[in-house]
Write a structure and sequence with these properties.
Blueprint (H helix, E strand, L loop, with lengths): L6 E4 L3 E2 L8 E4 L5 E7 L6 E7 L14 E6 L2 E10 L4 E10 L6 E4 L14 E4 L7 E9 L5 E8 L4 E6 L1 E2 L7 H6 L4 E6 L2 E6 L3 E7 L6 E6 L20 E6 L2 E9 L26 E9 L7 E7 H4 L7 H10 L6 E8 L6 E8 L9 E7 L4 E7 L9 E4 L13
Parallel strand pairs: 1-5, 2-5, 14-18
Antiparallel strand pairs: 1-27, 3-4, 4-5, 6-7, 7-8, 8-9, 10-11, 11-12, 12-13, 15-16, 16-17, 17-18, 19-20, 20-21, 21-22, 23-24, 24-25, 25-26
Pfam family, one: DUF1618
Protein name: DUF1618 domain-containing protein
């Protein structure tokens, strides 16, 4: 089987001394060596990664598990928290893993790094041109006398920091109030050296740097459908029902709408999936996928819809659905399916997590489903680690830069 051009990756690392072709070694801000390694599997399986810091105990030296913040191209930006000194002071180190060209490397982002509201706002952007350089972007809110966003950038080529206050784009979607309320859950590279912060309730905040003077300009791209009525969007997590991604000069957006009569066909907030009294029919949904070209004057266009009635039906086009039911005793209609993830490679594909409706981990099952939304067909399924919440994985393309000699598990 050829190496895939991308992988699903666990958001949080485990602590173990794994050595393979992906291993890279760096140095923490305290001068300790630290290694990062990946154990890669073909999607829809989920790959793992591990961190090892010789002489440092995970329950004493680390303050929680290292976390991947986001990835773009050959680069993965990650955060590690350490305790230092007798006072148990917490130190935050940011690292950039580079898969290639050449041997994988792990570089510490030199501090002090700016403080951000959420670590997932920190983004990495491949630099224009050759050379394998990158920029790490930290957005910092300024509230005096009014809301402003200061953009801090670390340039790996010059090894220098810079910062500028961002300007707002002059358009109908980018209003002051909308930008103030924007609360991103992830950052994604948007191509051409730009970055976007994704708030799955309110829209994508695109940050572009003008070529003539390097000024960062913010433009808000609102979603084709408003936030659902009756859902407290300031506290409800959208990742179980929505996803968005950017690639090839376009932004794509997917939303699930539940068939539950209790919600009147509207989106549900996270609490829906914890309800023990949910019936089989309430697990049904319709997924709608939209697309918008960033450089054109046109708005959103809906690509296609997929419904569980068709995807998981007994007479489904997918032989896999019938085989899973007949041979494995797995009825997807009786599993909670959520957490849509848009494919970076195929516009027709949406990945979904399916979990059995039980709170007993000994009886629980978790699957990653590959759904062709255009044809309403299940193409593949694979068992994945069981988590209490959905969308604990990220898509990364760094595996394509590791070389053909890399052996996947």
């Amino acid at each position: 089987m050829p190496d895939p051009g991308w992988v699903f990756l666990e958001e949080f690392a485990s602590f173990s001394d794994v050595r393979n072709a992906t291993t890279a070694t760096g140095v923490t801000s305290a001068g300790r060596p630290v290694t990062v390694s990946f154990e890669l599997v073909h999607p829809p399986g989920v790959s793992r990664w591990s961190v090892h810091c010789p002489g440092l105990k995970k329950d004493r030296g680390f303050n929680g598990s290292p976390q991947i913040l986001n990835a773009a191209g050959a680069f993965v930006v990650m955060r590690m928290l350490f305790f230092t000194g007798r006072g148990r002071t917490r130190v935050i180190d940011y690292f950039v893993y580079r898969a290639g060209p050449g041997k994988p490397t792990l570089h510490l982002v030199p501090g002090p790094c700016p403080k951000v509201q959420s670590p997932k706002q920190v983004g990495v952007v491949p630099a224009r041109g050759a050379g394998g350089h990158y920029n790490v972007v930290f957005p910092v809110q300024r509230l005096d006398p009014r809301f402003e966003l200061e953009i801090f950038v670390f340039d790996s080529e010059t090894r220098a920091w810079s910062s500028r206050l961002a300007e707002f784009s002059q358009d109908e979607e980018t209003t002051y109030d909308a930008v103030v309320l924007h609360t991103p859950t992830k950052a994604v590279a948007a191509g051409g050296g730009s970055l976007a912060w994704i708030d799955l309730w309110r829209g994508a905040l695109l940050c572009e740097w003008r070529r003539d003077d390097g000024q960062p300009v913010l433009r808000l791209i609102q979603w084709p459908v408003p936030p659902p009525r009756g859902v407290p969007i300031d506290i409800a997590s959208p990742v179980e029902l929505r996803d968005a991604t950017m690639s090839d000069g376009a932004i794509r957006f997917v939303e699930l709408r539940l068939r539950s009569s209790g919600y009147g066909g509207r989106c549900a907030c996270t609490s829906y999936f914890a309800r023990e009294e949910a019936t089989d029919d309430e697990h049904g949904w319709t997924a709608s996928v939209w697309k918008r070209e960033l450089g054109s004057g046109y708005g959103w266009g809906i690509g296609f819809k997929a419904d569980t009635y068709n995807v998981f039906a007994d007479d489904s086009r997918s032989r896999l659905v019938r085989r899973m039911r007949d041979e494995g005793g797995i009825d997807l209609n009786k599993m909670v399916t959520a957490g849509p993830v848009l494919s970076l490679q195929d516009e027709d594909v949406v990945y979904m997590e399916a979990k059995s409706g039980t709170d007993d981990p000994r009886d629980a099952t978790a699957l990653m489903l590959v759904i062709n939304a255009r044809e309403e067909r299940l193409e593949a399924a694979d068992e994945i680690p069981l988590h209490r919440r959905f969308s604990t994985f990220c898509q990364c393309t760094f595996s394509r830069f590791l070389g053909t000699s890399l052996a996947f598990l």
